[in-house]
Amino acid sequence: MKRKQGHLMINHQPFTRGRAVATACAATMCLTLVIAPASPTYADDATAPAQQQTTSNSNNTDIPDNPDNPSKPDNPGTDSDQHTDPSNGAIDAYAATHTWLGSPTAEVTPITAIESGAERTYQNGTVYWSSSTNVHTVRSNIDACYQKHLQDLGFPTTDEMKLNGGASQVFQRGQIHWSPSTGAQFTRGAIQQYWSQRGWQDGWLGWPTGDELTVKGGASQTFQHGTVFWSNSTGAHAVKDGIRGRYSVLKFEQGILGFPTTDEMKLNGGASQVFQRGQIHWSPSTGAQFTRGAIQQYWSQRGWQDGWLGWPTGDELTVKGGASQTFQHGTVFWSNSTGTHPVVGTTLSKYAAARYEQGQYGFPVEDQTGPTQRFQHGSIAGCGKVGYQNPGGFFQVSSCNVSVPGGAFGYASPSRISINANRDQVVNAFISRAYDYLGTRYVWDYAMQPGNGVDCAGLVMQSLYATGMNLQDYNPTAHWYDPWHSHDANNMSNDRRFLHISVSQRQRGDLIFYPGHVAIYLGNDQVIEAMPPRVRIANMYAGNRHPTGAARPII
User: Fold this and answer.
1) Full-model pTM
2) d(Cα 259, Cα 219) in Å, to the nearest integer?
3) What strands lie across the sheet with 287-291, from one edge to the other?
4) Which residue, among 179, 182, 183, 186, has the nearest Cα to 165 in the 3D structure?
5) Which helix (H) or strand (E) holds 551?
6) What domains can you pick out in the chain, each with its CATH number?
7) Sheet hosting strand 339-343, strand order edge to edge
């Protein structure tokens, strides 16, 4: 038996024939056998009955595998048969009414490996009998699987049941399921119960692709669309898709994470799953990465993937003296003596050039709150953003200055927020920069310095640059030279990189849109705007105008 990525590898055989089994309990003496416990999924009750999978076509005794060869069995009633048959003729009587079995190919044979019973093979199946289960046929690939796991499963308690896309059969301690694409596999206990509660083969897991595998501390079983893991302390949980891929690299339940303790949880933009010693997180852009311990705790306290760090982009890396892990918006470092701290922006770039914690600076000893960050052996000056940040998918703020194309229109207002500025401080920086432009002349398609000239969209650009917000394709050069960007007020009103809201939801620092115009909302129905002949403060409804929409650049 080999394990490959949590699968139990089985050689499937083509449909050939089935068998029938029996228990002898004579009038004066019964044969008793001690049965070994089943897999760990029967931790408390080794002989707990399997949960039966039922179907409206469960009685298939009249359906031959080969209807063109319905030859009848030998006469079951001979004196010699009755003398040696532990089933007292029950097997042959069954065969006489199920002529599709064909002729017998062997004598009735006693079975004592699981409990006293008997079997007899026929051309198209094997019939099994025991006093507790009566007579049932096992056929084809189900019988091939049954022969490998007879002692685990016990005697059949039903005949084969036809299912949508395959077949199954119930035994004393489990079931065997077969489909053309997956072959025959057995299920039992807690893993079978988990699967049944999710719709059997018609549910999202699909058919089993391997038998239950007993592993150290529990069991696992592979299905078409996931793997189910069980232990006594964690119960049964499925792992699937990208998370399963990372879990396999980490050696499944035998690796650093242990068994799963929850099913996969859907998140905004991805998914995560909890394990005994950590978690795995997945998003389409970052893939699956695991987190644990102090770094995971730091990340969780700052909002998980919805916080300013975003999703993890790499697994936790054990380094000399501690650990580190990369996220979308920074890298978090931990050591026992310094605790857990992130490094971001240009500070991180300089730190990387100095070989991170293994270089001259050592581990960070504080979060950066100003223009420099302290490390064990020195400080690094840099900019970036920690703490408050716009959600992913929206324009981001930063203490770094925005870089725009050079030339005559190459001016961008410097960022005036600190690296750890909160939302109110960012909004204040945005509006205070707009106030710097009061009285500046209105010039169509200008986004220049105060006193030089701006239009309505240019005022918004330069004021947002003061929050370190890189507006990408919105810049002074494109606004002047690109015909499409000459209408940036309208472009902004449709740009989903700003959070669009209703006018009734407006707050200080929001954008208010009109046909071909944009203004910055100050509160109390007042706006600051570039309107000919110059930048002014006015009522948002002045001149009987009516807003067409609103957006929130600082969320």
Assistant:
1) 0.77
2) 10
3) 265-267, 270-275, 278-283, 287-291
4) 179
5) strand 549-552
6) 3-172 (no CATH), 292-387 (no CATH), 423-552 (3.90.1720.10)
7) 317-319, 322-327, 330-335, 339-343
In tens, the pLDDT along 372-408 reads 999 999 999 999 999 999 988 899 999 999 999 999 9
Chain mean position to CA 101:
48
Tally the C-alpha atoms within 13 A of residue 194's C-alpha that lie toward its C-beta: 27
Find the radius of gyration of the CA atoms of the chain: 36
Task: Tell which residue, 144, 94, 135, 142, has the closest CA to residue 111.
Answer: 135
- Residue 17 in this model has a pLDDT that exceeds 90: no
Check if the beta carbon of residue 231 is closer than 8 Å to that of residue 253.
Answer: yes
Residue type (1 letter), 11: N
pLDDT at residue 84, as a whole number: 67
CB within 8 A of 525, min separation 6: which ones? 539, 540, 541
User: Is pLDDT above 60 for 495?
Assistant: yes
Please tell me the predicted confidence (pLDDT) of residue 48. 34
List of long-range contacts for 314-321, beta carbons under 8 Å, 24+ apart: 314/289, 315/246, 315/289, 315/290, 316/290, 316/291, 316/292, 319/356, 319/357, 319/358, 320/357, 320/358, 321/357, 321/363
* CA atoms within a 13 Å half-sphere pointing along the CA-CB vector of 70: 11
Residue 395's nearest CA partner among 305, 490, 488, 461 is: 461
Q: Which residue has the tokens 């330069």?
A: 462
Q: 444: which 2 tokens?
A: 């169509």
Contact (Cβ atoms closer than 8 angstroms) between residue 439 and residue 402: no
